[in-house]
Amino acid sequence: MSANPLSVSVRRQPHRGWGIIENGTLAILAIIVIVYVVSKLWGLWTQKDVAMEVTNYQSIITYVRGNFKQTSGYNFTSAATMTGTVIAAGGAKGMTIQGDETSGTATMTNTFGGQVVITPVAANGFNNGFSLSSAKIPQDACISIAQQMGNGAYTSVSINSSAHTDGNVSAETATKECIKDSGGTGQNTLTFTVNG
After folding, report:
1. What residue ranges do the domains of the chain occupy?
2. Which SUPFAM superfamilies does this entry report, sorted A to Z (predicted)?
3. Which residues of 34-68 are buried (b: 16+ CB within 10 A; e: fewer)?
4. Helix H segments across 69-161?
């Protein structure tokens, strides 16, 4: 029997796996995907914090207006007593509370660890209004919160030392006035004032 003249013996090289270039490329692509996913998750986390803070501030302001306004105004002698009373009355839902909630001397903090204070505001000889002040807000959250809350619903909105007496804050203004974080800690204080 003669060999088939068309059959050619081909010697195949054994498969040696992927080289360093292929493995390196896959590793870089994996790192890029991980960084992208983590950045998106971080953005969603920040948006959640902002939404929660806006909701908490609006709820507290609405609660104070509905429960503590008398014909002679908001009858509190200090920010400490007003804040403590609002907490004791159950008007600070969603906030982190320090101290005994029922004592009238407890304090509250925001999501970022900054103190939140409610202060009576005097006008024409009596406390006709009040303000809610929130500290240690990171720059990105400050811009979002100031813009969302600065829609004219409040008498005045202050970003750090800049007061907007018409209660309106644009994204551009908030971006200019909210300062950058220091060592990962927010440096901004937002104050929302209500008259009446």
Report:
1. 20-195
2. Pili subunits
3. eeeeeeeeeeeeeeebbeebbebbbebbebbeeeb
4. 79-88, 139-149
Q: What share of the chain is helix, strand, coil (3-state, %, to 5)?
A: 40, 25, 35
Superfamily (CATH) of domain 20-195: TcpA-like pilin (3.30.1690.10)
What gap in Å lies between CA 133 and CA 114, rounded to an integer? 10
Q: What is the pTM of this model?
A: 0.75
From the CA atom positions of the chain, what is the Rg in Å? 29
- The pLDDT tens digits for 9-55 are 666 666 555 555 666 676 677 777 666 666 655 555 556 789 999 99
CB-based contacts of 180, cutoff 8 Å, min separation 6: 139, 187
* Kind plus residue range of the DSSP H or E element containing 193: strand 188-195
The kind and range of the H/E element at 158 are strand 156-159
